[in-house]
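Researcher: I'd like a candidate sequence for this fold, 293 residues long. If you have to choose between options at a position, lean toward the conservative one.
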């Protein structure tokens, strides 16, 4: 699908870094207008204490209030496996619609089984306010956002393009970080390569905002790059690496990676649009199914 990219619209993008999961969340703001969107908000979780906190979300809420902005959207690029979503906490205070890719239903199906969820857990994505299909557009004030289906890391991954800003989720990392893993249930290294090519087919000057950075080699955490820089320098796909090369590399690398430490709490919460499951007395509880992953 050909996208009409409007490089002349340059949203103001403010990053919020979560050091526990190395996630970068964003507030995307209409230049000169009141509208904004949040991309990939975080809720902190201390698994030893079983404690949830909201430092990152509180910072985003304070920023939006200070600037007198109106929150139109809270967008998840995918069902994250390494951190819990802060979307409902933010929505309660600021409103906005929570959106994710329609293929979240596949993730709900797979993980509904892993967590042995009952029939009350809907596998139709209805926990979210909006399910984006490939090529869908939406508005953030006067700006138009576009959702592109970019599977590979997970089946429900989407990249969002708003003006000249593209939020790549977990397709690409910074050029020296390469790409995200493709070995989660429903992941596929070949699909990830194809999805990355889709991102790289955007105009060279498109600003790319990534979802995770681990500061390889001890460099400072960073989050912004461009299509041109990724094409030239990305260590996994830059310089014209072929699909075969990428799939061989990615598959070998993924076989060595550990399971993310927060995958079980993250999936249980994030597949419910960030809502924490409750027991019959209304206490927030998480399951820890054994030998399922
Ligand atoms: Fe991810």
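Model: Candidate sequence:
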């Amino acid at each position: 699908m050909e996208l009409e990219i409007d490089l002349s619209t340059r949203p103001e993008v403010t990053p919020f870094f979560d050091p526990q999961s190395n996630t970068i969340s964003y507030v995307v703001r209409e230049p000169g207008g009141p509208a904004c969107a949040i991309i990939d908000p975080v809720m902190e979780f201390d698994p030893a204490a079983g404690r949830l906190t909201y430092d990152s979300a509180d910072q985003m809420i304070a920023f939006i209030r200070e600037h007198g902005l109106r929150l139109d959207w809270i967008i998840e690029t995918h069902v994250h496996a390494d951190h819990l979503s802060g979307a409902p906490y933010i929505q309660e205070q600021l409103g906005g619609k929570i959106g994710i890719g329609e293929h979240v239903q596949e993730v709900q199906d797979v993980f509904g089984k892993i967590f042995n969820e009952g029939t009350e857990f809907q596998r139709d994505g209805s926990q979210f306010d909006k399910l984006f299909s490939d090529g869908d557009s939406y508005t953030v004030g006067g700006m138009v956002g576009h959702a592109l289906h970019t599977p590979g890391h997970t089946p429900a991954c989407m990249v969002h393009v708003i003006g000249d800003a593209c939020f790549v989720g977990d397709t690409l990392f910074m050029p020296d970080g390469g790409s995200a893993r493709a070995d989660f249930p429903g992941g596929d290294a070949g699909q990830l390569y194809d999805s990355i090519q889709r991102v790289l087919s955007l105009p060279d000057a498109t600003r790319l905002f990534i979802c995770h950075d681990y500061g390889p080699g001890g460099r400072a955490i960073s989050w912004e790059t461009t299509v041109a820089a990724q094409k030239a320098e990305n260590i996994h796909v830059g310089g014209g690496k072929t699909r075969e090369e990428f799939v061989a590399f990615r598959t070998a690398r993924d076989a060595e990676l550990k399971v993310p430490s927060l995958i079980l709490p993250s999936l249980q919460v994030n597949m419910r649009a960030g809502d924490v499951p409750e027991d019959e007395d209304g206490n927030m509880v998480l399951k820890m199914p054994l030998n399922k992953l």
